[in-house]
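User: Could you go from structure to sequence for me? I need the amino acid at each position, not a summary. Structure tokens:
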């Protein structure tokens, strides 16, 4: 029948059942349970951002408030089970429930829980991520000093996990490691930017390349150029996705073995390129959301065979206790979409040899296959722990790949010939073939010509710290043209007033500040770690960078009159805070509540301690800091750092709506607002916003507009008209916060081009 205008998809596929029954990937006696699980919708899973100091508070809030409200609840005749933590995920930071996404979105009884999830997800405190997708980053064993490459990163949930692991110690604003997140699809790269931006890290760079031919990057080590090898690589390759049938029901009718046969070559090329760029002793995790050995064990076996002992599969049986897994298989066959089976390459007729390749078959030599330890691969089956299907293999690199063994010699020869210029080590442009160890005569000639014809302007821009898009001759540019990344020169007059105004520590790494414009006024200042600065400066011509850096300062249109043209940005405050020694106001929890619920509260509303602190302070941007009191265990027990603005008679916080809601929830303030018709209130708000926008110059930063408005309002609003917000109802609080945030939503078309490329609210999709 037809439901909602669409035919019901029948969850049957005879070829799928025939194929996997024959391969024996499911233990004896479990087939019916396996198929039954595939036909059930996938449970909703969520992960709490682990490195945030608020993780414990969010977990407490979830367990004590939202989960308890789900007890004994029935939705559409189905009893809602209490959410359970994933037994194998550390510190109870991942949870699953039998609620599907559809029920969560549509059910009025679950509206409060759904609002909580959406709001906290936007803040970066929670990620809604499939359970099996959380496994690969955990098996990478990331430490804060690791250089990490995520080869096929979009949409970015695994990348977010990697960033969290880098920031395991919140007291270190700049970990030594970094994540370079790559995706071949330009539009999906902006999804990736959106995910990464939620975590506010200076250690992430998003790039746009074909993973199978991602270029070798260089870094400067003690004045000499060296090829960058990664300590950890996540290789989550494109796949047929038959492990995702529970959420992507289209797979039921579209599935054939042809998908796997077509993807195998690409998967092998990407994996080969990955291990080439892995440092010796490094770890690479290869994963797919497919159950097919052609995409899984066949790729790993082929990689191990041609590595000639340079790679080995790691035994991770003791890692992630509680995770039910099946071992990798050592025997399989190849089937065409017409159902024809082949057990050996020699049986494949010549007219089929373009579809089926030798690397798709298992190795016949018993000793070789035994030495590969393919049983160390992980197969996750849906019926074992109510998840999707998944495959993971963890590879360790013991020595250089056989075709790269003389790589250091090539590096030295090229350096002698071309001087201190870019060097590209021999790499594989076809994953299934070995690359020659020495560069050919033609390659050397081409390298010489390239150096001779190098544009002097490019050399000059390098010296000035400009990292622009690569020249079109070397790389075709697809998608949106990116603005350059321009590092602030050491003697830039822009920095001195900033340093003085905020009393920045002498250790502040000002060389890591950058902007996205070469000409005109610098409107935003961003920050990267010194390791990413090194990567950017040495590779701008061979790499298409979509985004990097965290916003730390924004220009005020009239900031100079307050002693500094730049105000602090909330996105980067946790990175900046350790270096700031002035303009910090310590506030109590009642003050924080006022700041988060009132648009522009008068100073008289705050505690006498706060009033005394701001009395002698000049107008302008400030830091508002809340430190928990251990003697008051009922109060919020995690620190809060907010960016604010001190006016003549008022104090305010520059915080987004969802972040305001987050902090208020953590403090026990009820912020839920049921959906109701409030046309009058909404239209009034809309009119006010439109009027405000009309008064401001197009292209100004949204928060600057708010600041200008506040400065004018201060003289106009009588102090008596304001009421204390702390006693307000949940509806009033929500309305106030929406008013505070409304201008952000309506100003997208007025935001500068620079902001478009970088702010998470303007994802190019």
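Assistant: Here is the amino acid at each position, in order:
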């Amino acid at each position: 029948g037809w439901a909602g205008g669409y035919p019901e998809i029948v969850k049957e596929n005879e070829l799928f059942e025939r194929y996997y029954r024959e391969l024996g990937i499911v233990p004896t006696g479990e087939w019916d349970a396996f198929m039954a699980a595939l036909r059930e919708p996938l449970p909703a899973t969520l992960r709490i951002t682990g490195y945030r100091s608020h993780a414990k508070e969010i977990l407490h809030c979830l367990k004590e408030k939202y989960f308890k409200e789900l007890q004994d609840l029935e939705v559409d005749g189905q009893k809602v089970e209490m959410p359970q933590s994933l037994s194998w995920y550390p510190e109870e930071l991942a949870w699953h429930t039998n609620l599907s996404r559809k029920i969560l979105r549509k059910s009025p009884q679950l509206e409060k829980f759904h609002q909580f999830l959406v709001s906290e997800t936007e803040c970066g405190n929670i990620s809604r991520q499939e359970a099996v997708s959380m496994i690969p980053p955990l098996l990478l064993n990331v430490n804060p000093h690791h250089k990490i490459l995520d080869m096929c990163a979009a949409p970015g949930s695994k990348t977010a996990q990697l960033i969290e692991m880098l920031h395991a110690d919140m007291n270190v604003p700049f970990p030594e490691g970094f994540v370079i997140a790559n995706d071949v699809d330009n539009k999906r790269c902006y999804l990736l930017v959106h995910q990464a931006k939620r975590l506010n890290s200076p250690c992430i760079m998003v790039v746009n390349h074909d993973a199978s031919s991602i270029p070798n990057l260089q870094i400067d080590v003690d004045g000499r150029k060296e090829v960058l090898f990664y300590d950890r690589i996540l290789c989550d390759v494109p796949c047929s996705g038959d492990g995702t049938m529970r959420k992507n029901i289209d797979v039921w009718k579209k599935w054939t073995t042809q998908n796997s046969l077509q993807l195998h070559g690409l998967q092998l090329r990407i994996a080969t390129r990955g291990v080439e760029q892995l440092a010796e002793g490094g770890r690479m995790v290869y994963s797919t959301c497919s159950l097919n050995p052609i995409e899984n064990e066949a790729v790993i076996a082929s990689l191990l065979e041609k590595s000639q002992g340079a790679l080995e599969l790691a035994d991770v049986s003791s890692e992630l206790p509680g995770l039910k897994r099946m071992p990798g298989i050592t025997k399989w066959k190849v089937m065409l979409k017409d159902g024809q089976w082949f057990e050996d390459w020699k049986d494949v007729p010549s007219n089929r040899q373009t579809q089926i390749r030798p690397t798709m078959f298992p190795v016949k030599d018993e000793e070789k296959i035994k030495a590969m330890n393919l049983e160390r691969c992980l197969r996750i089956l849906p019926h074992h722990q109510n998840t999707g299907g998944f495959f993971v293999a963890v590879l360790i690199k013991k020595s250089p790949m056989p075709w790269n063994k003389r790589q250091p010699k090539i590096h030295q020869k090229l350096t002698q010939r071309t001087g201190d210029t870019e060097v590209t080590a021999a790499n594989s442009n076809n994953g299934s073939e070995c690359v020659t160890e020495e560069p050919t005569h033609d390659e050397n000639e081409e390298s010489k010509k390239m150096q001779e014809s190098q544009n002097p302007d490019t050399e000059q821009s390098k010296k000035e710290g400009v990292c622009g898009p690569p020249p079109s001759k070397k790389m075709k540019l697809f998608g949106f043209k990116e603005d350059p990344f321009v590092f602030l020169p050491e003697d830039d007059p822009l920095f001195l007033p900033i340093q003085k105004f905020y009393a920045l520590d002498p250790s502040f790494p000002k060389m890591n500040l950058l902007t996205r414009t070469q000409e005109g006024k610098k409107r935003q200042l961003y920050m990267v770690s010194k390791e990413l600065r090194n990567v950017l400066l040495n590779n701008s011509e061979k790499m298409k960078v979509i985004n990097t850096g965290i916003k730390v300062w924004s220009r005020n249109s009239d900031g100079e009159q307050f002693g500094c043209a730049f105000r602090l940005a909330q996105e980067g405050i946790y990175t900046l805070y350790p270096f700031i020694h002035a303009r910090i106001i310590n506030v109590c929890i009642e003050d924080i509540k006022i700041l988060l619920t009132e648009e522009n509260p008068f100073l008289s509303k705050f505690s006498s301690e706060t009033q005394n602190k701001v009395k002698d302070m000049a107008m302008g941007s400030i830091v508002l800091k809340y430190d928990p009191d251990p003697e008051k265990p009922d109060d919020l027990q995690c620190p809060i750092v907010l960016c604010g603005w001190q006016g003549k008679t008022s104090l305010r916080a520059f915080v987004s709506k969802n972040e305001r809601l987050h902090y208020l929830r953590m403090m026990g303030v009820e912020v839920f607002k049921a959906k109701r018709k409030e046309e009058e209130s909404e239209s009034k708000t809309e009119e006010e916003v439109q009027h405000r926008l009309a008064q401001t110059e197009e292209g100004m930063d949204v928060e600057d507009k708010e600041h200008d408005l506040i400065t004018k309002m201060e003289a106009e609003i009588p102090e008596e008209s304001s009421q204390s917000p702390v006693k307000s109802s949940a509806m009033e609080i929500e309305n106030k916060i929406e008013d505070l945030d409304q201008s952000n939503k309506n100003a997208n078309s007025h935001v500068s081009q620079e902001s478009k490329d970088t702010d998470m609210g303007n994802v190019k999709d």
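One structural detail worth keeping in mind: The chain has a mean pLDDT of 80.
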